[in-house]
Amino acid sequence: MYLAYILLIIYTTGVVNSGQNKLQCKDEAGNDVDWYVLYKVPKTSESSDPIIRKGLAYLYITSDTVANGWQLSKKEIGSKDSVPGKTLSLLYKDDLAPDILWILYNDQAPNKNQSTVRYGHTKGVLMTDNTRGFWLIHSVPSYPPVPKTGTENKSRKLKQSEQREAGDTNDDHNNNNDDGNMNMDVDNDVPDGEYAYPKSGQLYGQSFLCISMGSNQMNAVGLQLMYNQIMTYRYNLPEIMVNEYPSLVNASKHVRPKKAPYFHKEEIVSSGRQEFISFAKSDKWQKELYDDLIAPELKSDLLAETWLNGRGKLPSECSGSKVQNVRSIVLNAANVDFKSSRDHSKWAVTQTNKKNRNWVCIGDINRANTQFNRGGGAVCVNLPQLWTNYRGSVNEVEPCPKKKKGFFGRIRDSIFSWFG
């Protein structure tokens, strides 16, 4: 009996850590990659590509293909054979649940018609088998679907007054606010227990970043998630791993930092030794993530693409480190261009090509004063080839606000106008 038990452990461990079952970011062939970024293309009715017309097309760059730039996938993002479908496949293998710790967080959980504005404006997945794992950051509401295993986080039912936030409710997709024009009920089509992509994620552009990492990075990520004040909608905490990852346990149970400063910077190192910097803030910090934290820390001017359709949107900021809003995007690999109002992605890129400052940041929070009251963050990486692709996607930028002229400046302009 004892021998059979030992053999079962060896077999299970081998299944989790072999080939396609390694907990790492995956490409479409199921191969391990150190990291990838993904751009879900907005639904574009005039496109000749049927997948783009459906709003299910995506571009991707992996650590192995970064020299080739954006690649347009022939697969739909809702396919189990897509890049995120392959990456999240083990989440839906019920027999592996005892050996994998995972956390799903989203301020608009799948099949939930309620907002969670008292939590961070954050969305993502973290998984580890106690040897390796990955962190997937994305911008898609109601995603990914709930597995059959794990535990639902049963937070108290929100009061009606908490269910709406001016200018940003249910991550921009409730048709009862100023942000979007999609009803939350459409998200109820997402099935439980298998990989899928919600209809509410089809209309707008969306962003993804996946980082493969060793288990020794997990507590650092967990600390960032605590500052981000994630809303966990499902988690799986195997008893044998609980003591190894206290910050992940705290993040999953909605434990928040109780002392200032209410922001935190953390270096995250991937399995392939690529360095990333994670920036996180809580609602108590009451400042703007990009202008007040990321740009000064990176000592760089940024171009930021975030959701600016709602109330409280911030103009381009040009005092100190500049943070300018992106107005339109062009994705040549998909032969599409679109206004920022059709893009729900959250990313930023340094404005100019400077040595050791080719930063790309992907996160989950918007440039709006309503976001001062929300936790959230972004993860940045300094990679010239990746920077080239994101910087090349910027089509139009909101200029710096004109400085108000004093009395003498107005008199001077009047004199010039009189005399031509």
Automatic annotation (TrEMBL):
Any matching Pfam family: DNase_II
GO molecular function, one term: deoxyribonuclease II activity
Ranges annotated as biased composition (Basic and acidic residues): 151-176
Sorted UniProt keywords: Hydrolase, Signal
Signal peptide region: 1-18
InterPro entries reported for this sequence: DNase_II (IPR004947)
Keyword Signal attached: yes
Region (Disordered): 145-192
Biological process terms in GO annotation: apoptotic DNA fragmentation
Family membership noted in the UniProt record: Belongs to the DNase II family.
PANTHER family according to UniProt: DEOXYRIBONUCLEASE II (PTHR10858)
Official protein name in the record: Plancitoxin-1
